[in-house]
Amino acid sequence: MKIEERHKAVQLRKRGYSLKEISENLNISKSSASLWVRNIELSNKSKELLKEKYTKGQIASQEAHRAKKRKRLEESKQKALGVTGKARFNSESKKILCAMLYWCEGIKEDSMVSFINSDPFLIANFLQLLRESYDLNEDKFRVCVHLHSYHNKKQQIKFWSKITNIPENLFMKPYKKINGAKRIRKNYQGCANIRYYDARLAQDLLAIAREYMKGSIG
Protein backbone atom coordinates (compact mmCIF):
# COMPACT_ATOMS: atom_id res chain seq x y z
CA MET A 1 0.00 0.00 0.00
CA LYS A 2 2.80 2.40 0.90
CA ILE A 3 4.59 1.65 -2.37
CA GLU A 4 1.42 2.43 -4.34
CA GLU A 5 0.87 5.68 -2.41
CA ARG A 6 4.49 6.66 -2.91
CA HIS A 7 4.17 6.05 -6.65
CA LYS A 8 1.01 8.17 -6.82
CA ALA A 9 2.72 10.93 -4.82
CA VAL A 10 5.61 11.00 -7.29
CA GLN A 11 3.25 11.18 -10.26
CA LEU A 12 1.26 14.01 -8.70
CA ARG A 13 4.44 15.90 -7.89
CA LYS A 14 5.65 15.60 -11.47
CA ARG A 15 2.34 17.10 -12.58
CA GLY A 16 2.98 20.16 -10.42
CA TYR A 17 0.97 19.29 -7.31
CA SER A 18 1.98 21.00 -4.08
CA LEU A 19 2.81 19.04 -0.92
CA LYS A 20 -0.49 20.12 0.59
CA GLU A 21 -2.41 18.89 -2.46
CA ILE A 22 -0.57 15.56 -2.44
CA SER A 23 -1.22 15.15 1.27
CA GLU A 24 -4.95 15.84 0.85
CA ASN A 25 -5.34 13.67 -2.27
CA LEU A 26 -3.66 10.60 -0.77
CA ASN A 27 -4.75 11.17 2.83
CA ILE A 28 -1.19 11.11 4.09
CA SER A 29 0.79 13.50 6.28
CA LYS A 30 2.52 16.44 4.67
CA SER A 31 5.82 15.25 6.12
CA SER A 32 5.43 11.86 4.37
CA ALA A 33 4.63 13.58 1.08
CA SER A 34 7.72 15.77 1.46
CA LEU A 35 9.94 12.75 2.18
CA TRP A 36 8.64 10.76 -0.79
CA VAL A 37 9.00 13.48 -3.44
CA ARG A 38 12.02 15.42 -2.19
CA ASN A 39 14.37 14.07 -4.88
CA ILE A 40 11.95 14.41 -7.80
CA GLU A 41 13.23 16.49 -10.70
CA LEU A 42 10.48 18.78 -11.92
CA SER A 43 9.95 19.99 -15.46
CA ASN A 44 9.96 23.71 -16.15
CA LYS A 45 6.21 23.55 -16.66
CA SER A 46 5.70 21.92 -13.25
CA LYS A 47 7.99 24.46 -11.61
CA GLU A 48 5.99 27.33 -13.09
CA LEU A 49 2.75 25.72 -11.97
CA LEU A 50 4.02 25.32 -8.41
CA LYS A 51 5.32 28.87 -8.41
CA GLU A 52 1.92 30.15 -9.54
CA LYS A 53 0.15 28.13 -6.83
CA TYR A 54 2.60 29.40 -4.20
CA THR A 55 1.99 33.01 -5.26
CA LYS A 56 -1.78 32.52 -5.22
CA GLY A 57 -1.47 30.87 -1.82
CA GLN A 58 0.50 33.82 -0.49
CA ILE A 59 -2.09 36.27 -1.81
CA ALA A 60 -4.93 34.24 -0.32
CA SER A 61 -3.11 34.00 3.01
CA GLN A 62 -2.44 37.73 3.09
CA GLU A 63 -6.04 38.53 2.25
CA ALA A 64 -7.25 36.15 4.98
CA HIS A 65 -4.90 37.87 7.42
CA ARG A 66 -6.20 41.30 6.40
CA ALA A 67 -9.78 40.09 6.74
CA LYS A 68 -9.11 38.83 10.27
CA LYS A 69 -7.46 42.13 11.15
CA ARG A 70 -10.41 44.11 9.79
CA LYS A 71 -12.77 41.95 11.84
CA ARG A 72 -10.72 42.49 15.02
CA LEU A 73 -10.58 46.24 14.39
CA GLU A 74 -14.33 46.39 13.85
CA GLU A 75 -14.92 44.42 17.07
CA SER A 76 -12.62 46.81 18.95
CA LYS A 77 -14.44 49.78 17.44
CA GLN A 78 -17.82 48.46 18.56
CA LYS A 79 -16.48 47.87 22.08
CA ALA A 80 -15.04 51.39 22.10
CA LEU A 81 -18.39 52.84 21.02
CA GLY A 82 -20.00 50.94 23.86
CA VAL A 83 -17.61 52.58 26.32
CA THR A 84 -17.50 56.11 24.91
CA GLY A 85 -21.22 56.17 24.19
CA LYS A 86 -21.99 55.64 27.87
CA ALA A 87 -19.31 58.01 29.18
CA ARG A 88 -20.50 61.23 30.76
CA PHE A 89 -17.85 63.93 31.33
CA ASN A 90 -18.32 66.67 33.88
CA SER A 91 -16.03 69.69 34.23
CA GLU A 92 -13.68 67.89 36.64
CA SER A 93 -13.24 64.80 34.45
CA LYS A 94 -12.60 67.02 31.42
CA LYS A 95 -9.86 68.83 33.34
CA ILE A 96 -8.28 65.51 34.29
CA LEU A 97 -8.39 64.26 30.70
CA CYS A 98 -6.94 67.55 29.46
CA ALA A 99 -4.20 67.43 32.08
CA MET A 100 -3.28 63.83 31.22
CA LEU A 101 -3.00 64.70 27.52
CA TYR A 102 -0.79 67.60 28.49
CA TRP A 103 1.36 65.40 30.72
CA CYS A 104 1.92 63.01 27.81
CA GLU A 105 2.49 65.48 24.98
CA GLY A 106 3.11 68.83 26.64
CA ILE A 107 6.41 70.42 27.55
CA LYS A 108 6.73 70.07 31.30
CA GLU A 109 7.73 73.59 32.22
CA ASP A 110 5.68 75.94 34.35
CA SER A 111 6.28 79.20 32.50
CA MET A 112 3.61 78.56 29.82
CA VAL A 113 1.40 75.88 28.30
CA SER A 114 3.25 74.27 25.38
CA PHE A 115 1.70 71.31 23.55
CA ILE A 116 3.31 69.86 20.43
CA ASN A 117 2.16 67.08 18.13
CA SER A 118 1.79 66.16 14.47
CA ASP A 119 -1.66 64.58 14.89
CA PRO A 120 -4.32 67.17 13.97
CA PHE A 121 -7.00 65.12 15.73
CA LEU A 122 -5.05 65.08 19.00
CA ILE A 123 -4.27 68.81 18.77
CA ALA A 124 -7.94 69.66 18.13
CA ASN A 125 -9.17 67.51 21.03
CA PHE A 126 -6.64 68.93 23.49
CA LEU A 127 -7.64 72.48 22.59
CA GLN A 128 -11.33 71.65 22.85
CA LEU A 129 -10.84 70.22 26.33
CA LEU A 130 -8.67 73.18 27.33
CA ARG A 131 -11.26 75.69 26.14
CA GLU A 132 -14.14 73.83 27.78
CA SER A 133 -12.25 73.51 31.08
CA TYR A 134 -10.84 77.03 31.45
CA ASP A 135 -11.82 80.61 30.70
CA LEU A 136 -9.10 81.50 28.19
CA ASN A 137 -7.89 84.71 26.65
CA GLU A 138 -7.54 83.70 22.98
CA ASP A 139 -5.01 86.49 22.37
CA LYS A 140 -2.52 84.61 24.56
CA PHE A 141 -2.24 81.80 22.00
CA ARG A 142 0.73 81.47 19.68
CA VAL A 143 1.46 78.66 17.22
CA CYS A 144 4.80 77.59 15.76
CA VAL A 145 4.57 74.99 13.02
CA HIS A 146 7.55 72.70 12.33
CA LEU A 147 7.85 72.02 8.61
CA HIS A 148 10.03 70.17 6.14
CA SER A 149 11.50 71.90 3.12
CA TYR A 150 8.86 70.36 0.84
CA HIS A 151 5.99 72.00 2.74
CA ASN A 152 4.25 75.14 1.54
CA LYS A 153 4.38 77.58 4.45
CA LYS A 154 1.14 79.42 3.66
CA GLN A 155 -0.82 76.25 3.07
CA GLN A 156 0.35 74.64 6.31
CA ILE A 157 -0.38 77.73 8.39
CA LYS A 158 -3.85 77.85 6.86
CA PHE A 159 -4.33 74.15 7.62
CA TRP A 160 -3.28 74.42 11.27
CA SER A 161 -5.24 77.63 11.76
CA LYS A 162 -8.39 75.76 10.76
CA ILE A 163 -7.54 72.79 13.02
CA THR A 164 -6.75 74.91 16.07
CA ASN A 165 -9.30 77.68 15.48
CA ILE A 166 -6.46 80.14 16.13
CA PRO A 167 -6.16 83.10 13.70
CA GLU A 168 -3.21 83.10 11.29
CA ASN A 169 -1.94 86.40 12.70
CA LEU A 170 -1.13 84.56 15.95
CA PHE A 171 1.18 82.13 14.13
CA MET A 172 4.91 82.58 14.60
CA LYS A 173 7.58 82.16 11.92
CA PRO A 174 7.62 78.44 11.03
CA TYR A 175 10.55 76.32 12.08
CA LYS A 176 12.11 74.58 9.08
CA LYS A 177 13.61 71.18 9.92
CA ILE A 178 17.15 70.52 8.66
CA ASN A 179 17.49 67.80 5.99
CA GLY A 180 13.74 67.39 6.01
CA ALA A 181 13.34 66.54 2.33
CA LYS A 182 15.08 63.14 2.31
CA ARG A 183 11.74 61.35 2.49
CA ILE A 184 8.44 62.96 1.60
CA ARG A 185 5.71 61.70 3.91
CA LYS A 186 2.34 61.70 2.18
CA ASN A 187 -0.39 63.60 4.08
CA TYR A 188 2.11 64.68 6.75
CA GLN A 189 1.17 68.20 7.81
CA GLY A 190 4.19 68.91 10.00
CA CYS A 191 4.08 69.47 13.76
CA ALA A 192 2.23 72.23 15.54
CA ASN A 193 3.53 73.67 18.79
CA ILE A 194 0.59 75.30 20.56
CA ARG A 195 1.65 77.85 23.16
CA TYR A 196 -0.55 79.60 25.67
CA TYR A 197 1.25 82.19 27.75
CA ASP A 198 -0.11 81.59 31.22
CA ALA A 199 2.23 80.16 33.84
CA ARG A 200 -0.56 79.49 36.34
CA LEU A 201 -2.51 77.40 33.84
CA ALA A 202 0.58 75.33 33.03
CA GLN A 203 1.17 74.75 36.73
CA ASP A 204 -2.47 73.74 37.24
CA LEU A 205 -2.43 71.20 34.40
CA LEU A 206 0.78 69.58 35.61
CA ALA A 207 -0.46 69.52 39.20
CA ILE A 208 -3.77 67.87 38.24
CA ALA A 209 -2.00 65.20 36.21
CA ARG A 210 0.54 64.57 38.96
CA GLU A 211 -2.05 64.25 41.72
CA TYR A 212 -4.34 62.08 39.58
CA MET A 213 -1.51 59.63 38.94
CA LYS A 214 -0.56 59.59 42.60
CA GLY A 215 -4.15 58.74 43.46
CA SER A 216 -4.24 55.93 40.91
CA ILE A 217 -1.35 54.08 42.51
CA GLY A 218 -1.87 55.22 46.07
Description:
- With 218 residues, the chain is an alpha+beta fold.
- The chain has two domains: 2-79, no CATH class; 91-217, no CATH class.
- The protein is 61% helix and 9% strand.
- Helix 1 (2-14) runs antiparallel to helix 2 (19-26), helix 5 packs across helix 6 (120-133) and helix 5 (91-105) crosses helix 8 (199-217).
- The model has no long low-confidence stretch (mean pLDDT 88).
Can you summarize this structure?
By secondary structure, the chain is an alpha+beta fold. Helices cover 61% and strands 9% of the residues.
Low-confidence spans: none
Instruction: Please trace the helix and strand order, writing H or E for each element.
Output: HHHHHEHEHEEH
Mean pLDDT: 88
Number of strands: 4
User: Number of helix segments?
Assistant: 8
Strand order within the widest beta sheet = 1-4-2-3
User: What is the alpha-carbon Rg in Å?
Assistant: 30 Å
- The assigned structural class equals alpha+beta
Fraction in helix: 55-70%
- Looking at the structure, what is the overall shape? elongated
State the major sheet.
4 strands, mixed
User: Strand percentage, roughly?
Assistant: 5-15%
Q: How many structural domains?
A: 2
CA-CA gap between termini: 72 Å
